[in-house]
Amino acid sequence: MNKAQLVEAIADKLGGRQNAAEAVDAVLDAIVRAVVAGDRVSVTGFGSFEKVDRPARYARNPQTGERVRVKKTSVPRFRAGQGFKDLVSGSKKLPKGGEVSVKKAPKGSLTGAKPTVKKAAAKKAAAKKAAAKKVTAKKTTAKKAAAKKVTAKKTTAKKAATKAAAKKAAPAKKTTAKKATAKKTAPAKKATAKKAPAKKTTARKTTAKKTTARKR
User: Fold this and answer.
1) Do the strands 73-80 and 47-54 form a parallel or antiparallel pair, or are they unpaired?
2) Taking phi first (over 0 means left), then psi (-120 to 50 degrees means alpha), and beta for anything else, what does residue 47 get?
3) How many other C-beta atoms lie within 10 A of the C-beta of residue 45?
4) pLDDT (tens digit, 9 = 90+) per residue, 62-111?
């Protein structure tokens, strides 16, 4: 019986071929995913599916007889339940009609056989996440510190440049101010110098008046 025949066999019980195909796919997918994750899928009366690790070993090639190194690997394993074994061995007879009288699975039977493994995996995942968060936090703090240092250096350089420019500009302003004051004072001195001879002429006029008065 292949998968298509299995779907046909349970189609009438599940209300059609489509529903049967979806049910078979869902069951097989759940079993495969659980076994790959390292869990054991146990169905009471039917059997259990589990993952088995095989260590590295030496084997012989059946065609050449050469000794070959086989790497470490993991393989799936199915172990039949006691009810399944009894039906196959013939100690129990199959019913003529209806479903096989396999024991009903109790609640929680489709769970992993090693819950501690799940807890350990969850703890490891949490530890990895915490370590990743710490690493990212350290990187962000280092980047922020480097950015602060760079900005501080830039601001100090800008301040030094502005100070140097201010020092260079200050003497130029002073010299221009001195030149302006010198220009303003120079014409005033010349004007005073020109006015001085005017006083002499007035003095000469007075002496001339005095001489004329004496002549009379």
Assistant:
1) antiparallel
2) left
3) 19
4) 999 999 999 999 999 999 999 999 999 988 888 776 666 555 555 555 45
Helix axis angle for 3-11 and 17-36, nearest 10°, is 130
CA distance 72 to 59: 12
Q: Report angle CA 143, 130, 53 to the nearest 5 degrees.
A: 130
- Six-digit token string for 42: 């146990």
Give 198-215 pLDDT, tens digit per residue.
454 444 554 545 554 555
Q: What is the 3-state secondary structure (H, E, C) of the chain?
A: CCHHHHHHHHHCCCCCHHHHHHHHHHHHHHHHHHHHCCCCEEECCCEEEEEEEECCEEEECCCCCCEEEECCEEEEEEEECHHHHHHHHCCCCCCCCCCCCCCCCCCCCCCCCCHHHHHHHHHHHHHHHHHHHHHHHHHHHHHHHHHHHHHHHHHHHHHHHHHHHHHHHHHHHHHHHHHHHHHHHHHHHHHHHHHHHHHHHHHHHHHHHHHHHHHC
